[in-house]
Amino acid sequence: MALKVIGAGLGRTGTLSLKFALEHLGFGPCYHMVEAMASMPTALPKWLDVIDGRPDWDAVFEGYAATVDHPGCQYWREIAAHFPDAKVILTVRDPESWFRSANATILSPGMLHMLDETPAKPFFDATVHGAFGDGIADADHMIDYFKRWNAAVIEAIPAERLLVFEAKQGWQPLCAFLGVPVPTIPYPRVNERREMQEGLEKMPDIGAAGPPSLEMMAEMGRMRLEMMRAAAFGSIAA
User: Fold this and answer.
1) Counting beta carbons within 10 angstroms of the beta carbon of residue 109, is it exposed (0 to 12), middle (13 to 18) or buried (19 or more)?
2) What is the pLDDT of residues 17-64, one digit of tens each?
3) What is the pLDDT of residue 204?
4) What's the CA gap between 64 and 2, in Å, rounded?
5) d(CA 65, CA 152)
6) Sheet containing 30-31, strands listed edge to edge, beginning at the edge strand earlier in sequence
7) Taking a C-beta distance cutoff of 8 angstroms, is the pair 203, 106 a contact?
8) pTM of the full predicted structure?
9) Residue 185: its pLDDT value, please?
10) Which end of the chain is more exposed for a tag (fewer CB within 10 A), N or C?
11) Which residues lie across from 89 on neighbouring strands?
12) 3-state helix vs strand vs coil in the chain, percent to 5
């Protein structure tokens, strides 16, 4: 199965909501970091090959119709070239708001410490954290990085192939871009900062017996995926 949709937006730009939205529209399964986590024992070797400069994109995304979020977004240029018929979605949000959200969740000291203790550290360093450099906690540096990232995508991808999308826009521009009917249910809204921070607060207990193994990380990923999938179109997903 060749990818039909490629997400080029950085994490914390509504990517998990977009994952569930794409799947609801028939562009699924959709890859996302939570999917990588849920299959970490088998996914990690494929991504380590990517990091080493030996990508097999067909193997990495086997069985998937779309990809959003990390780790895929880190390689949006290569993936877009490998799947030339796929459409590209750049998820965006207010840059200052993005930094506050990322700094409190996926780039928080607690998250970075937890991931540094796992056997998947090289994977996370290369596909999420490493590109930000030493300024990962510096607002000015990160906001500038975010703006330059988005500008690079917009410059590189032809306008007819690209949708610059903000979650608050809802179904209409997404469905028009993909050529599908607009659903009658509300656009999903999951993985907000509060929800993710609550998960981070539980990490010390999870790691009390030592660094999580790949199998433990996979179990954590599967549990979170099931929980977020159940919430995607429930009453809290306004």
Assistant:
1) exposed
2) 999 999 999 999 999 999 999 999 999 999 999 999 999 999 999 999
3) 44
4) 8
5) 24
6) 30-31, 66-67, 5-7, 87-91, 162-165
7) no
8) 0.91
9) 95
10) C
11) 7, 163
12) 60, 5, 35
The Cα-based distances of 225 to 33, 66, 137, 161, 206 in angstroms read 10, 16, 27, 29, 17
User: CB 238: neighbour CB atoms within 10 A?
Assistant: 8
Beta bridge partners of 66: 5, 30
Answer for the pair 1, 64: CB distance below 8 angstroms, yes or no.
yes
**Cβ 203 vs Cβ 115: under 8 Å:** no
Alpha helices in 33-94 (DSSP H): 33-38, 40-51, 57-60, 76-82
Nearest CA to 123 out of 45, 66, 223, 55 is that of 45
| Angle between helix 15-24 and helix 214-232 axes, rounded to 10 deg | 60
Which residue is listed with tokens 């007819």?
A: 160
Q: Tell which wins on pLDDT, 17 or 195.
A: 17
More confident residue, 191 or 129: 129
> Which segment of 11-20, 48-57, 115-124, 152-161 scores lowest on mean pLDDT?
115-124
The CATH class that applies to domain 5-227 reads alpha beta
Ranges of beta strands (E only) in the chain are: 5-7, 30-31, 66-67, 87-91, 162-165
Q: What is the reported pLDDT for 207? A: 47
Which amino acid belongs to residue 27?
F
Contact indicator for 133, 228 with CB cutoff of 8 Å:
no
* Amino acid code (one letter) for 19: K
pLDDT exceeds 50 at position 205? no
